[in-house]
Amino acid sequence: MTVKPSFTTCHVTCFILCVFLFVGSTHGHLQEEWKKYVDSQLLYLRSEILQYVKDHSFILNTLRALNWHLLTLRKDIKQLDAGRRILKVQMEYSLTNVTKHVDSIEEKLKDLEEIIANHQQNTVGPDVDTLEGSETVEKPVQTTTAKPTTAKPTTQKPTTQEPTTPEPTTPKPTTAEPTTPKPEGPKLRLAGSSTGNGGRVEVYHNGQWGTVCADNFERFEATVICKMLGFSGGTIRVYKESFGPGSGPIWLSNLGCRGDELSLFDCRSGGWGVHNCGHYEDAGVQCN
C-alpha cells in the first residue's frame, strides 16, 4: 500500500525550495552591495590619509620656513649689534678727532696772535718827538745881488746909479728821514748733536729760534738743508726724535721741496707758525 503525499507537504516543500532560491539570489546581491560599501570606505580612508599626508607636509614646510626666518632674524640682530658697536666706535673716534682739531685750531690762533703782536712790534716807526729833536735847521746866509746898470746917452747931466738892496735867501730846512732797521732774514742751524753734520733742524725767524715739524719731511727737504749748510750730496738720512725735542715755536710744517732749491725758505710750506705738531715731532737731518 503506497501513501500519496498530501497537499500540505507539497506546499511546504515548494516553499522551502523558493526560500533557498531567494536566499541564494539575495546572498549574491548582498555580497556585491557589501563589496561596494567596503570599496567606498577604503577610498574615503585613502583620501583622508592623503589629505593628512598633505597637511602634514604643509605643516613641516611651514615649520621649516619659520625656522629659516628665525635664523635670518638672529643673523640680522647680530649684524645690527655689530653695526651699532662699529658706529659707536666711529662716533668716539670722530669726537676725538674733532677735539684734537679744535685744540690745534686754538693753538694756531694763539700762534697767529703772537706772530701778529711780534710783527706789530717790529713794524712800529721811530718816535716823532725824537725826529723833531734831531732835525737840523741851517741859518740863512745873506747874499747881495747887484742889478746891472745901463748907460744913458751922452748928456750933460751926471749919471747916477740906483741903490741896490740885498735880498736874503733862506734855505729850506732839511729833515732827516727815519731809517727803520730791516728785519733780519731767516737763518738755519743744526742743534742737539755733538757732530757738525747732523742734528735737529732749527730756524731763526722773527727774532726767535724755532723748530721744523717732521710732517711731510722727506729726503728732498733734507737735501736742500744740507746743501744750504755747505754739505755736498752723499747719503742723507732723516731722523725723527733722534736729536731730542726742541723748544720755542714750531716755525715750519708740511714742507714741499723739489730738491733743487737754493734755500729751505724757497720751498712750499703751510706758512710761518702754521702747524699741527708737537716738539716730539721735530725733524732732524744727517748730512755727508
From TrEMBL:
Disulfide bonds: C213-C277, C226-C287, C257-C267
Coiled-coil segments on the chain, per record: 95-122
Residues of the SRCR domain: 188-288
Keyword Glycoprotein found: yes
Region of interest (Disordered), ranges: 137-199
PROSITE patterns from the UniProt entry: SRCR_2 (PS50287)
Endpoints of the signal sequence: 1-28
Cellular component terms (Gene Ontology): membrane
PANTHER family: DELETED IN MALIGNANT BRAIN TUMORS 1 PROTEIN-RELATED, SRCR DOMAIN-CONTAINING PROTEIN
Protein name in the entry: SRCR domain-containing protein
Species this protein is from: Magallana gigas (Pacific oyster)
Lineage: Eukaryota, Metazoa, Spiralia, Lophotrochozoa, Mollusca
